[in-house]
Amino acid sequence: MQPYITHPTVFLVGQTYQILFLTETTGQAWVEIGGEKFCDANNGVLRWNDRVHRVTVPCASLDAARSYTVCFQQMSDRLPYRPEHGETESRTYAFTPVPAGTDTRICYLSDTHGLYDAAMTVAAKEPFDLLVLGGDITSHNSTEEDLWLALRISGEAAKGELPTVYSRGNHDTRGPMATYLPSLMGTQDGKTYFTFRTADTFGIVLDCGEDKWDDHVEYGGTICFEQFRREETAWLRALAASDEWKRYEKRIAICHVPFIFDMPEPFGIEKDIYREWVELLNEIGVDFLLAGHTHRAFTVYPNNEHLLTEMKFPTIVASIKREHYAGAFLTYGKDSCDVRITHETGEVTVEKVDFVR
């Protein structure tokens, strides 16, 4: 694998793939697809003093080519004239986009809280088309190893050959290194809420931030998620008012926190905002909301007495972290979704979730 620490992760954001990978040393990097070169650059200058590399490519290019090559040149200093760098070291990967005209197989890993081996055990249980990291991949981001864990999990689970979507969790926002996390995940203009498209699916990724008010003693005055959620709400309003999603028959929303509930304090935050989020997702007509956070697995259907407001879609909460870890495999069809809660021990529970049309 040298100089590469992990297989790349091909994050799906909008109509682009953001290919991220880690290297043992600093240097400059690019990706080659079908004879075209896409650089990890800042306004025309190749980035050289980082071990994290991000290259954005159009989905259409990679979907057509079905392969890509990551390239790296070691560089410890960039001289102003005639800079020197190491030899090009490259690796080529086959790539399979999410298929059209058939059910989508999703591997959902949320709330791993540092359990790399358990996540790998679950991910290996079934083949899948799309990997979704549902947040709380670590319990806090205190070290580089914590920050890199999501890329280690996605790199090994998808092996650089399948697309990945990352929905940030509240624990992902904790710790001294948490401010750097967006640079190690797929984002839209730096934002951790965004949309994505496959051939026949429109996806919406939302981010609740923390699960208590900003002034809670646990955070020590270090967050401003109330403002963040207001900005996100304005974005979601504009999205609902657009026609971006209308061309897609299949529509999905993903969020770490299942914000649909009327929760008690200290978790009963932003009820007006979360009520509006549900109403906007109703308007968009999502088939279901996929969430984690609770460390339990269950499905919530419309007309549940604990909902904040009328919900016209089921919410699938699909991760367990108790005596052992469980993620999920979902087969997402036109009218329903088969959900298989899959434990690291091998136990599987199955539920068919019908969509509300």
Compact description:
The protein has 357 residues and is α/β, with parallel strands linked by helices. It is 17% helix and 34% strand. The protein has helices spanning 59-65, 116-123, 144-158, 225-241, 271-284; strands spanning 9-13, 16-33, 36-39, 41-42, 45-46, 50-58, 67-74, 89-94, 104-109, 130-133, 163-166, 194-197, 201-206, 250-255, 288-291, 297-300, 315-318, 320-321, 325-332, 336-343, 348-354.
Describe this structure in words.
The protein contains five helices and 21 strands. With 357 residues, the chain is α/β, with parallel strands linked by helices. The longest helix is centred in the middle third of the chain and has 17 residues, at 225-241.
- Name the beta content range: 25-35%
How does the overall form come out from the CA principal axes? globular
Structural class: alpha/beta
* Oligomer state of the chains in this structure: single chain
Helix share of residues?
10-25%
Distance between the termini: 48 Å
The pLDDT mean sits at 97
Any chance you could write out the topology, listing elements then pairs?
Elements: E1 9-13, E2 16-33, E3 36-39, E4 41-42, E5 45-46, E6 50-58, H1 59-65, E7 67-74, E8 89-94, E9 104-109, H2 116-123, E10 130-133, H3 144-158, E11 163-166, E12 194-197, E13 201-206, H4 225-241, E14 250-255, H5 271-284, E15 288-291, E16 297-300, E17 315-318, E18 320-321, E19 325-332, E20 336-343, E21 348-354
Parallel strand pairs: 1-11, 9-10, 10-11, 13-14, 14-15, 15-17
Antiparallel strand pairs: 1-2, 2-3, 2-6, 2-7, 4-5, 7-8, 9-19, 12-13, 16-17, 18-19, 19-20, 20-21
Helix pairs in contact: 2-3, 4-5
